[in-house]
Specification:
The structure is a single chain. The protein is an alpha/beta fold. It has a domain at about 1-150 and about 185-210 and about 280-295: 3-Layer(aba) Sandwich (Rossmann fold). The protein is built from 13 helices and 14 strands. It has helices at about 10-20, 35-40, 55-60, 80-85, 90-100, 120-135, 160-170, 185-200, 220-230, 240-260, 265-275, 285-290, 295-300; strands at about 1-5, 25-30, 45-50, 65-70, 105-110, 145, 150, 170-175, 180, 185, 205-210, 220, 235-240, 275-280. α3 packs across α5 and α4 (about 80-85) packs parallel to α6 (about 120-135). The chain starts with a strand and ends in a 7-residue tail after the last helix. The relative contact order is 0.14.
Length: about 300
């Protein structure tokens, strides 16, 4: 099976590419920095230099592909345009390349659970707009949309710093309330879901959420108990005062616009972090693919080296 991947050098993409290291798959990956990609990916992966703004590279990436996994996108920025350029325009460019060079290829789009609340942030809105773009083409090309929750594991740069902070300080930093709930997924379970999709017969257009098997998600006291047991110390939830966080977030956005940088913590991102319900379920994806997660949080932490050093 010829598989084309955008975002293969990222945290999730690397795990998927590694899982597909098999004679069963011929993997081709888009990479802005080809030399760096060769050091990160298996020798058998074909590297196509370029990015989502390079039409020739996108056509070379997907040419004669049987399936395309679309992971590349922007996760940080200061303005709507920062996110739309990659998440919306980039998805449109990939679709155009597939129409030209891989008209029969299936498409798996890695969106985000944030897309179900598009008014919260520029990121969430851009993910929903990308989904809508793909769904308008569903009659011509069925597409599967995955909406994972927070993903963690080896190489993660978002959740692991939170777990490290908890282990070092005994505090769990809550931007919202301690009773807020969220689902999680270990990166290898997400990679196995992608492989299950590849190995399944052609599927109709669908949008699926997925999580680690802990129904109802985690609130912060439960996270404290699990992380505390894993690192051997008591951890308590810490509801961070709103005013300092908002000040920092506004400052980040202003500096980002001034310096041309893409900050992570902005007022919009704070709205995401304070949303009380980021819980999802597995019923649709399990029914379609017979996929089930293997790794809940305690085991996922055990499988992630260095998270509490």
């Amino acid at each position: 099976m010829r598989v084309a991947i955008t975002g293969a050098t990222g945290f999730i993409g690397r795990r998927i590419a590694s899982l597909l290291e098999s004679p069963q798959y011929l993997v081709r990956a888009l990479a802005r920095d080809a030399a760096a990609a060769r050091s990160l990916l298996a020798p058998g992966v074909e590297i196509v230099p370029g990015d989502l703004a390079t039409p020739q590279a996108l056509r070379a990436l997907v040419r004669d592909a049987d399936a395309v996994l679309h992971l590349a996108g922007a996760v940080r920025g200061a303005t709507r345009a920062d996110f739309d350029a990659a998440n919306v325009d980039g998805s449109a460019a990939l679709l155009a390349a597939m129409d030209a060079a891989a008209p029969r290829a299936r498409l798996l789009f890695f969106s985000s659970l944030a897309a179900r609340e598009p008014a919260l942030s520029h990121y969430a809105g851009s993910k929903q707009r990308a989904e809508q773009l793909l769904l308008t083409r569903a009659a011509a090309r069925p597409v599967t949309i995955l909406r994972p929750p927070a993903v963690y594991g080896p190489g993660d740069r978002e959740m692991l710093p939170v777990f490290r902070f908890m282990a070092r300080t005994g505090r769990a930093p809550c931007a919202g309330k301690a009773a807020d709930r969220l689902s999680l997924i270990f990166v290898d379970d997400l990679a196995h879901a992608a492989r299950a999709w590849l190995d399944a017969p052609a599927l109709p257009t669908a949008t699926w959420s997925l999580h680690d098997g802990h129904d109802g998600g985690y609130d912060w006291p439960l996270l404290c108990a699990i992380v505390g047991a894993a690192c051997g110390r008591e951890i308590r939830a810490w509801e961070i005062p709103r005013a300092p966080l908002e000040l920092i977030a506004r400052g980040n956005r202003a500096l980002g616009r001034l310096l041309g940088r893409s900050p992570m913590l902005t007022p919009e991102k704070l709205r995401e972090l304070r949303h009380p319900d980021w819980v999802c379920d597995n019923s649709a994806i399990t029914a379609a693919l017979h996929w089930t997660p293997r790794t809940q949080l305690a085991e996922g932490l055990r499988l992630t080296p260095g998270w509490h050093d």
